[in-house]
Write a structure and sequence with these properties.
disordered N terminus, elongated, three-stranded antiparallel beta sheet
């Protein structure tokens, strides 16, 4: 499973993403081998495929492979691997996203006031607060405190957090 990145549209040359690993087990992704060359000169080793990573990993102690895996973001730490090839395969699969921008998440839309009213359990303090606020003249802090039994800072926090941020 190799990743190709087109870097020069003028002559449509395609390069393999190149990774380097240094003595401190820092793995860096580069769009081309040329970009990685400077890092390799500084004592790093480069690889462009799972096979190349496995060849490098054979020479490493098992502890290094575990340390590399356990330092990757979002992985379940392991005490060891069955072999260098297994470790290299898992590490390779995990580092494929390095150097890429993640897809931006679409913003979530807050529920409307009508949905907020319908989402409040009948007879709850939330329903009471929403009902008071929807009155023609609105509600005072004292009204809301009396209806809920909350302290002033709790009412303000509820309005700001639940009504303002969660329900829009």
């Amino acid at each position: 499973m190799n990743v190709s990145v087109t870097v020069n549209r003028e002559n449509e040359r395609t390069y393999m993403k190149t990774f380097t690993i240094d003595y401190d087990n820092n793995i860096t992704a580069f769009p081309t081998p040329d970009h990685a060359e400077a890092a390799v000169g500084a004592g790093s080793q480069s690889f462009t495929s799972p096979k190349q990573l496995a060849q490098l990993a054979v020479a490493w102690p098992a502890e290094r492979l575990v340390e590399i895996w356990n330092s990757l973001p979002g992985v379940e730490p392991v005490p060891g691997f069955k072999g260098a090839k297994t470790a290299a395969g898992r590490i390779w699969g995990r580092i494929q996203n390095l150097g890429e921008n993640p897809e931006p998440k679409a913003p979530t839309k807050a529920p409307s006031a009508k949905q907020a009213r319908e989402g409040a359990r009948p007879g709850s303090k939330t329903a009471a607060v929403v009902a008071l606020l929807e009155r023609k003249g609105g509600a005072t802090l004292a009204d809301l405190r009396k209806a809920t039994g909350w302290q002033a800072h709790s009412v303000r926090g509820f309005i700001s957090g639940t009504l303002g941020k969660r329900w829009g």
